[in-house]
Amino acid sequence: MFDAPADRKTLVEVRDLKMHFPIYAGLLRRHVGDVKAVDGVSFDIFDGETLGLVGESGCGKSTCGRAVLRLYDITAGTIRIEGEDISTMGQETLRKKRPTMQMVFQDPQASLNPRMTLAGIIGEPLDEHTGLKGSARRDRIYELMDAVGLNRDFANRYPHEFSGGQRQRIGIARALALHPKFIVCDEPIAALDVSIQAQVVNLLEDLQDKFGLTYLFISHDLSMVRHIADRVAVMYLGKVVEVAAREGLYADPKHPYTQALLSAVPEPDPVLHDTAERVILTGDVPSPSNPPQGCNFCTRCPQVFDICRLKDPQSREIEPGRHVACHLHNEPQAAGETAA
Amino acid sequence: MTDATQLDPANEYKPPRNQWLDVWDQFKKHRGALIGAIVFLFIVLGVFLGPLIWAHDAQFVPPVVDMIKLRDTRPIYTVLWESGAKVSWAHPLGTDNLARDYLARMMAGGQVSITVGLAAMTLSLLLGTLIGVLAGYFKRLDGPLMRLTDLFLALPLLPLLLVAVLLFRELLAGALGPEGGVFVLIVSLVGITSWMQTARIVRGDVLALKEREFVIAARSMGTPSRRIVLRHILPNVLSPIMVSATLGIATAIITESALSFLGFGFPPDFPTWGRLLFDAVDRMTLYPERVIWPGLAISITVLSVNYIGDGLRDALDPRIRGR
After folding, report:
1. Confidence (pLDDT) at A309
2. How far is Cα of residue A1 from the mean position of the Cα atoms in its chain?
């Protein structure tokens, strides 16, 4: 059930990724602390799979996605794409690597330049990385528009003339332009209508089959992640608390936070809805600039015990392909380490 | 997918239309802008081609006897309400106190004023946009450049201009001739003392724009900073630049006239609209036309440029275009 796809090639390998944003305060703008948006995240993404990244708002999902593509200068950690370490690469070297990794953004309105035509938007990556000119460039643009189901007549229109779903297709076409292997989808459906969400997700799945794409699918919509992802990583306050294959995670969540998160998914059956046992968390997410001592979740965890408030749990593989960072699941080792 | 059904095979391979045609189509729809453009074109043509038809020398002062006879002629229309007025068809707009033809002076003055206005505005716009974009986009330059802007805003401009004219006038006059030297001097002085507002507005807009997702998207596909600025930032800050450009022309014309009035601009016999205006102020009650005509010319020029800028701003924005 919890099958580890050990035979598959790792495309993206993220180890101990940290993205801290400094806070400056006072008259002299002194460095007084950091917002630890992403604080030691590790995961692998295998070739051709979809890794869902879920968590509540403000837990660092989007920052993590952007940091993996080096849209920020990361604080620490390594990111390997196709075995190549891009975490310390200069922007100019990175530029040559950009075609392999692309991004689809959350807000399709904001992610398209309002003063460029559709052809200009989809053509931009072609201008940057290929020498395509004139009719060859136009043919490639038409090809991409066909791939995402946009009418070729729309090539001269501007983003404001499209609906939300069409705009998101433009964003996807732009990401596909350079034959990428890895696409970070940063909540691509969050800003869309429910009926359009399904269209866009199906389009993403079709494209994955057609072009052999690998996705990091960031979302807070658990049912959608269940639909599209092969494996799921759950984030809480800048850390990944659990990584597991989809079926295992949804059937038997191990981490108390995952349990709480999954129990919040709406139940359509009214009878089950009334009898469902929900884990209701109390309190708010602590500030990422001042996370609690010990486990990040210890302030709200329903199963908290002493060691949680002292020591940060390390992520351990408790079953093949299943990593959990919780003291409940690695008591012996954790106790041993504290003694040592 | 939803719209793929209405695919028309005839249009399928229609190459993208040049977007400047769309801009022109929208510009034509803006009535104010179109009238403004026609009026401005009319003024420019009149001022530059007019002297070919009305071949009077604007700086020609007749010998003393003629001068006393011809000077202070009123414009031809004065006879409509003052039958005894001194008018002459040889000088439709009258003459000034040295018997120089006023129509010729208006045209010669217009050449200088419009050229100075456009050139100084272009210079201040380029400077302001450059500094604003650099300060907004590159965080490291923000502090130094904005302090420089504050410094320029805090400078007392008029004394500074006077000192600069005194220092450089001889130098430039030697290199480019008396009028050319003063022209370059005035354009550059007005340009480098009026870019600050533009820089501040542009910086603010760039700060907001560079955090927008489409700029991050451009970065994620590896577009270098200079092309992000040219392709994504500049077209989106065009509106405030347009507005400050049209206001800049007025400021430039007026600053030039102030300088000429103080005797630090063009030589006293060299006409510009500002100069004509200031020369006429002393005897305004006797000869109101000498104030009205240059004043009207400045106002209409500024107004028409304003409308052109307004229309251009709308035409360049694809969200407004086509409405």
Report:
1. 86
2. 24
Q: What is the ipTM of this complex?
A: 0.83
Q: Which residues of A touch B318 (CB under 8 A)?
A: 114-115, 117, 158, 160
Of B6, B14, B213, the CB nearest to A107: B213
Residues in A closer than 8 angstroms to B7, CB to CB, are 151-153
Q: What CATH number corresponds to the domain at position B279?
A: 1.10.3720.10
| pLDDT value at B18 more than 50 | yes
Hey, is the C-beta of B52 within 8 angstroms of any chain A C-beta? no
Residue of A nearest to B216 (CA): A71
Residue in A closest to B17 by C-alpha: A156
Chain B partners within 8 Å of A151 (Cβ):
3-4, 6-7
Q: How far apart are CA B146 and CA B139, in angstroms?
A: 11
* pLDDT, position A56: 85
In chain B, the number of structural domains is 1
In this prediction, residues A113-118 reach a mean pLDDT of 87
Q: Is residue B223 part of a domain?
A: yes
Query: In terms of Cα–Cα distance, which of A329, A306, A303 is closest to A316?
Result: A329
C-alpha span between A334 and B85 (Å, rounded) = 110
**Residue A340, pLDDT score:** 38
d(CA A287, CA A76): 20
* B274 inside domain: yes
**Residue B43: inside a domain, yes or no?**
yes
